[in-house]
Amino acid sequence: MALKMVKGSIDRMFDKNLQDLVRGIRNHKEDEAKYISQCIDEIKQELKQDNIAVKANAVCKLTYLQMLGYDISWAAFNIIEVMSASKFTFKRIGYLAASQCFHEGTDVIMLTTNQIRKDLSSPSQYDTGVALTGLSCFVTPDLARDLANDIMTLMSHTKPYIRKKAVLIMYKVFLKYPESLRPAFPRLKEKLEDPDPGVQSAAVNVICELARRNPKNYLSLAPLFFKLMTSSTNNWVLIKIIKLFGALTPLEPRLGKKLIEPLTNLIHSTSAMSLLYECVNTVIAVLISLSSGMPNHSASIQLCVQKLRILIEDSDQNLKYLGLLAMSKILRTHPKSVQSHKDLILQCLDDKDESIRLRALDLLYGMVSKKNLMEIVKRLMTHVDKAEGTTYRDELLTKIIDICSQSNYQYITNFEWYISILVELTRLEGTRHGHLIAAQMLDVAIRVKAIRKFAVSQMSMLLDSAHLVASSTQRNGICEVLYAAAWICGEFSEHLQEPHQTLEAMLRPKVTTLPGHIQAVYVQNVVKLYASILQQQEQAAEPEAAQEVTQLMVERLPQFVQSADLEVQERASCILQLVKHVQKLQGKGVPVAEEVSALFAGELNPVAPKAQKKVPVPEGLDLDAWINEPPSDSESEDEKPKAIFHDEEQRQARHRQPEVDEEELARRREARKQEQANNPFYIKSSPSPQKRYQDAPGVEHIPVVQIDLSVPLKVPGMPMSDQYVKLEEERRHRQRLEKDKKKRRKKKEKEKDKKGKHRRHSSLPTESDEDIAPAQQVDIVTEEMPENALPSDEDDKDPNDPYRALDIDLDKPLADSEKLPIQKHRNAETPKSPEKEDVPVVEKKSKKPKKKEKKHKEKEREKEKKEEKEKKAEDLDFWLSTTPPPATAPAPIPSTEELAVNAVTAPDNTCEGLRREEAEDENDEAEQDPERKSSRHKKKKHKKEKEERTKDKKKVKKKQPEPEEEAAGPVENGAAEEEPAPPMSSYCLLAENSYIKMTYDIQASLQKDSQVTVSVILENQSSSFLKNMELNVLDSLNAKMARPEGSSVHDGVPVPFQLPPGVSNEAQFVFTIQSIIMAQKLKGTLSFIAKDADGATHEKLDFRLHFSCSSYLVTTPCYSDAFAKLLESGDLSMSSIKVDGISMSFQNLLAKICFHHHFSVVERVDSCASMYSRSIQGHHVCLLVKKGEHSVSVDGKCSDSTLLSNLLEEMKATLAQC
Amino acid sequence: MIQAILVFNNHGKPRLVRFYQRFPEEIQQQIVRETFHLVLKRDDNICNFLEGGSLIGGSDYKLIYRHYATLYFVFCVDSSESELGILDLIQVFVETLDKCFENVCELDLIFHMDKVHYILQEVVMGGMVLETNMNEIVAQMEAQNRLEKSENFPMTLHLSTR
Questions:
Q1: Which of the listed residues A112, A118, A295, A422 has the most CB atoms within 10 Å of its CB?
Q2: Do the Cβ atoms of B113 and A18 come within 8 Å?
Q3: Do A236 and B85 touch (CB under 8 A)?
Q4: Which of A 195-254 lie inside 8 A of B, CB atoms?
Q5: Helices (H), chain B
Q6: What Gene3D superfamilies does the record point to (chain B) (predicted)?
C-alpha cells in the first residue's frame, strides 16, 4: 500500500527503481540487451534531473548494470554528485558506485578530494565510514597524498568503528604514497595495542601485509608481536601474527628458536584447525631456517609430520589438501621424515579430487630415491593409462619426466629402463608434451654415452612404426618424438643394426605429412645414415649395394624437394645434388664414403643453456660503441630496394642502439611489407600446415584410419618398461647377493662358530640408496661452459614491483620534512619547498665551526646513526638471546635477583625491550646517552648536529633506503665495511665426558652492577636419557652463585630441563661478583642421572668456570668527543702491550676485540682505532689499537690499573691467535 | 589480501561482483565466466581450493569457494590469507546475510544487490578483512538502516528491505 502511494507521488520523476529494473531484465530474457539499452536511456534522462533522489536511484541502477558487465564510467560525474549528497542514504549509493567503477584513470576523481575530506570529518560516524570504505577501493596517489593526514587523524578517532577502518585504509595509502609510511608508522604501531580487538586486528593485518613484502624492516617489532601472540585469544589475529612470524624467521634464526616452544604449545592446545595449520606452517618455516644451524629439532618435525598426517587422513578434503601442501614444504628440508609416509601419498593419487592428486604428485617429486624411483614411476604409468582428461594426464607426464630427470638424472640407475619409459609415453594419445619427451630422448642419448646403442635401436623401431605415432599428426604433438628419433638415429648411426631398414623408413612417402621442422631433421639425418651405410659397404667391398643405396636416395629425395616448407626444400635440393654427384663418382668407381662421412665428422657436445651469457666480454671491447656510424634515415630509404644485406646491418645496429624510435621502426616495417607485397619474387610466408597437407598432391587420397589406442599397444619388438624393471631388480638382487657373499665370506673367516644367524640376515633386503650401483657405467656428460665463465648473476627484483617503494627503514627517527602534507588555505604567495627554507639556516650554523671540526662532526654523525641502529639491533638481540617463556603462563617470578636459574625471565625482558623502544620513539633525535652529555659545550654542538642531520635525512630520503644491517649483535661493531668477519663464537668448552658436553658464555649487563649471567649449553652426547641435572659450584669469597631462596650455599641449582639423547639445551645461572678487577676460576660439578635400557646410573662431571676480566665488560657505545674528554681527564692509569706475528686484517682484528672483549670502536683512521668499553661496575676502559706491518700494539687507559693489565693480558692471548 | 569476491548462481549468473583491483568490465565478466567454469566442474565433496588463478594475479593467488544451494561464493586471495580462515570468513558472510535478510535465498541477493554490498563492506574493506564478528557486523548494519530510516525519505522503502 505504502509503496503504491509513494510510487504514485513520484511516478513522474522516475518509473523504475532497482527492483523494477531487475524484474524487467528477468522478464526480457530474449531481448535483454535491447531492454537494458532502453533502461540506460531512461537512466540518462533521470541523471539530467535536479532531484538528488532521482539521481541516486539512477546511480543505484547503474551499479547493478555494472555488475552485468556494462561500462558506467560515463556517469562518473553524476556519481560524484550523488556522493556529495547530504543524506547518508544517497551518499552510500554514490560511494558504492564509485568503489565499483572509479580507478586511477578516472579523470573526474580529482574532484572528489574535498568532498571526501568533508565526509571524513563528518560528525556522523557512518558518513565517515562510508567515505573510508569507498576510498579504500579507488584511492589514487593524489588522493593518498592529500588525505593521508586526515586519515591518520582518524586512526585516533573515539569510535573504534572508525579507527579500524582508518587503520586498514592506511595500507592502501602507503601503497599509493610511500612517503606516508614513516610518519604514520608510530601511530600504526600504537594501534597494535588498541583496547578494541577489531582495531588491533586491523593494525596487525596492515603490518602483516607490509612486513610480508619487506620483512627485514619489521624485525624490530618481533617482541611486540610475540607478546601479542602469547596474549591474544582472537584466532584471526593469531593466524596473521603466526603467518608474519613465518615470514620473519628466515631473516633471524634466533627468533625461530624462541618461537618453537609457544607454537608447539598452541599446536597441542588449539581446537581450531585453521590455527593449528598455520602454526604447523610456521614451525616448518622455523625448522627450515634453522636446518643449517640446529640439527636437534627432530621432535618438532615429527610433531608436524604427525599432525599433517592426521590432516591428510581426515575425510575433509580441504584438510587433506592443506596437509599435502604443508607436507611439500617439509619435504624440501627434511625429505626423510616425509618419505616414511609414502604409502599415504600414493593413496592420494587415487583420490577423486584433482587438486589433491596434483598436490600428491608434487610431493612424489621430492620423495623419489634410487630405490623407489622405478616403483613410483610404475605407479604413475598406471595412472597415466587410467587418467581421464588430458590436463591431468599431461600433468602426470610432465611429472614423470621431472621426477626422472631431476638433478641430472640422479636417481636413475638403469637408463635402458628410462628410455623404454619414454618410448611407452609416446603412445599417449593427444598429449601436448611431445616436445618434452623428445627433449629427454635427445638429452639422454647425447649425455649418457653408454646408452646410445640401446637408444638408437629403440629409436629406429620408433621410426619404423612412425605411422602409429604420426597417425593423427595434426591433432597432437606426439610426433615431435620423431624429431628426436630421427636425429638420434642419424647422429649415432654407427650403432644401428640395420641402417638400411631405418633409411627406408625415413624415406617413406608418409614422412611428407609430418610438420616441416621434423621433415627437415629427417632430410638432414638421412644423409648421415647414408654416409655411414656407404662407409660400411665400401669397407665390405660391396660397390653394388652402395650404388643401390645411392639410387634409393636419388629416387626418394625429390618428394622433399617439392615440400612447401622452405627449410625442407632447401636442404633436400642441396642434398639431392650432392647425392647425384656421389652417384656419378660411384659410377666411375671412385671411393666416396670417406669424403661423405667427413661432412659429419666430430662429436657434438651439449652446451649449458646459460653458456652464451657467461662468455666474458674481452677486454677493450665496448659492445655499446658503434662499429660504423649509424646509417642515416634518408640513406636507408633510398637504398632499400637493393639490399638484403643492408637490412641485416640495420638490424644489428638496432641491437646496439635500442633507443631507436619505436614509431620509426614500425614505419620501416610497414614500408618493407609494402615493398615485399609489390615484389612478385618475394615468397610470402608459408600457409598453415593444415592447408599444405591438403594441397600436397596424392596425399588426400590416402585414407586416414583412426587407430584405437585405448588398448595398450604391444608393438612387436617394442620394449616394455616392466621388462626392464624386472631386469633391474634381478640385477640388484645379484649385486646384493655378491656383496653379501663377500661379507659372509669375511665374517665366516672371523667367526666360524656362529652360523645360524647369517641366513636370516641376508634374506632381508635392507639396502640403502647408496648401495645401488647403476647398471651402466653412466658417464653423464656435463654441459659445456665457456672458459673463465662469469659468476652467475642473480636475477634482479622486478623494478616495477609496487611494494618495493615500501621498503623503508622504519627505525630511523622522523625528520621534520617528513610530516604529512596538511591542507591549508591557499596563500597568495607560492609555497616554499621545505628544503629551501631550511638551507640558509643550516648554512648559517655550519659556517661557524672550522672546517676540520665540521669534518669531524660528520664522522660523528655517521657513527651516531650506526650506533642508533646497533642499539636497536641490540635490543632485539637482547630479547632474542633470552629463552622463551612458556606461552601459556607468563608467570611473574618472585624476586628475580635472587633466582638462580633465570631461564624463565623472558616476559620481563620483553617488556623492557619494548619500553626502551618506545622511549626512543618519543625522544626521537634527542635520544642519546645522557651520561656523556654533561657539558654545555657539547649540548651546543649537539644541536647543530641535529640540524645537520635533518638536512642529511632529506637527502637520504630521496635516495634508496640505506642498506639494512642485519641484527647480528656486536660482531659488526668494528667490522664496518669491506671484508666479512670470520665466524666467531663466544661459547667455549667448559667440560666434556662421554655423556655430556658443556659449553658456556658469560654475559654481563649494565643494569646489575655486580652480576653476570653464565649461559651453559648442555649437549647430550650419549644414547641415554639425562635427567635430574644439578649444577653446583664452590663459591669463593669474591664470586657466589645465586641460588633459589631457602637453599644453602652447598646446594646445587637444578637445571630446568631434561635431555633426551642427542639433544642440547641452554641453562642460565646468575653469579654475584664483588671485585671484578681480577679474573678468577670457580670449581664446580654437574651431577645427573643417565638412564638407558639397562638402568640408571648417577654420573658427575667436574669443571672449572673461568671468569675473565673481559666478561665483566659491557659493550657500550661512546662518542669521540666524550672519549677525548675521558682521556684528557687524566685520572686513568695507562698500560700497553705489543703482539707480533699478526696476519689478520685490521678490520677483523677489531671485530675480534669487539666480540671477545666487548669493546666498541669509537673511531677508526686507517690502521689505528680507538675503542671503548665499560665494566659492570663503571670502570671506563679506553684503548688505542695500532697495527704495524706484522704487529699490533694496544695502549690502554683505565680507571683501575689492575683491571687494565689483566684485560690487556687477556687481549694478548686473543691476539696471539690471530 | 583478497583480490576479488564473486557470487554467482549455478548457471553462472553474477549476483555480486567485487574486485579490489581494477579490471575493465569485460575482463571482469570474463573472470566471472572462467571462474564459474572452474568451480562448476568440481563435485561438492572435493576440496574448496583451486590453484593457478591465471585470471587474477598468477601463482600466488588461490580461489577459495563455498557452494550453498544455488549460489557459489568465491574469494580470490593471495598467500597472505589463511585458506581455512577464508573459508570461515565466507561462512561468516553468509550467516550475516542470513541474519540480515532472515533466511536468505538467491532472490534476496538478486533484488538487493546494493544491500549485499553494504553488508560485505562491513566484512571486507579494500581487500582486507575488516570484521569477523557476526554480531558486530549485524549491529553496524542495523544502525545504518536505522539512520537511513530516520532520514525519512520515501526511497528508504525500497532500499531498506523488510
A1: A112
A2: yes
A3: yes
A4: 198, 201-202, 205-206, 208-209, 212, 235-236, 239, 243
A5: 25-40, 83-101, 106-111, 113-123, 134-150, 156-159
A6: 3.30.450.60
**What is the DSSP secondary structure assignment for residue A830, as one 8-state letter?**
P
In which band, very low, low, confident or very high, does the pLDDT at A747 lie, cut at 50, 70 and 90? low
Average pLDDT over residues A968-980: 41
Distance CA A4, CA A11 (A): 10
Q: To the nearest whole angstrom, how far is the Cα of A353 from the nearest Cα of chain B? A: 6
Q: Is the pLDDT of residue A434 over 90?
A: no
Asked if B85 is an interface residue toward chain A (Cβ–Cβ < 8 A), one would say yes
Task: Give the amino acid at A296.
Answer: N
Cell matching residue A233? 585469544
ipTM at complex level: 0.93
Contact yes or no for B158 and A136 at CB 8 A: no
Q: Which among A53, A67, A198 has CB closest to B155?
A: A53
Q: Which residue of B83, B118, B126 is in closest CB contact with A172?
A: B126
Cα(A378)–Cα(A418) distance, integer angstroms:
11
pLDDT of residue A686: 42
The beta strands (E) that lie in A52-121 are given as none
Average pLDDT over residues A302-325: 88
Q: Coil, strand, or helix at residue A784?
A: strand
Beta-carbon pairs below 8 A across chains A and B: 163
Chain A contact set for B84 (CB, 8 A): 273-274, 277, 318, 322
Q: Which residues of B touch A69 (CB under 8 A)?
A: 25-26, 28-29
Among candidate residues A766, A735, A761, A763, the one with its CA nearest the CA of residue A748: A761
Q: How far is B13 from chain A (nearest CA, A)?
A: 9
This model's pTM is above 0.90: no
Give residue-wise pLDDT tens across range A201-241. 999 999 999 988 888 888 888 888 998 888 888 888 899 99
Amino acid at A27: N
Q: Which residues pair with A1102 in a beta bridge?
A: A1085
For A415, phi then psi, to 5°, come to -75, -25
Q: What share of chain A is helix, strand, coil (3-state, %, to 5)?
A: 60, 10, 30
Q: What are the grid coordinates assigned to A609, written together?
A: 643453456
- Collapsing DSSP to helix, strand or coil, A280 comes out as helix
Q: Which of A1123, A1112, A1102, A1101 is CA-nearest to residue A1175?
A: A1112
Residue B126 confidence (pLDDT): 92
The verdict on a CB contact (< 8 Å) between B114 and A278 is no
Going by the DSSP 8-state scheme, the letter that residue A811 receives in this structure is S
Q: What is the C-alpha to C-alpha distance for residues A157 and A731, in angstroms, rounded to an integer?
A: 78
Choose among A913, A1139, A1215, A796: nearest CA to A224: A913
φ/ψ (deg, to 5) at A934: -75, -45
Nearest chain B alpha carbon to A169: B126
- Which one of B28, B50, B63, B82 makes the best mutation probe of the A interface by having the most chain A beta carbons within 10 Å? B82
Residue A955 confidence class, pLDDT cut points 50, 70, 90: very low
Determine phi and psi for A753, rounding to 5 degrees.
Answer: -75, -40
Percent of chain A scored above 90 by pLDDT?
16
Instruction: Give A1019's strand partners.
Output: A997, A1064
Dihedral (CA of A334, A336, A341, A346) sign: positive
The runs of H, that is alpha helices, within A492-620 are 499-506, 516-539, 543-556, 558-561, 566-587, 593-598, 611-614
Which 97-136 residues of chain B touch chain A by CB within 8 A?
A: 110-114, 117-118, 121, 125-133, 136
Contact list, B87 vs chain A (CB under 8 Å): 274, 318
**B contacts of A164 (beta carbons < 8 Å):** 130-131
Å from B120 to nearest chain A CA? 11
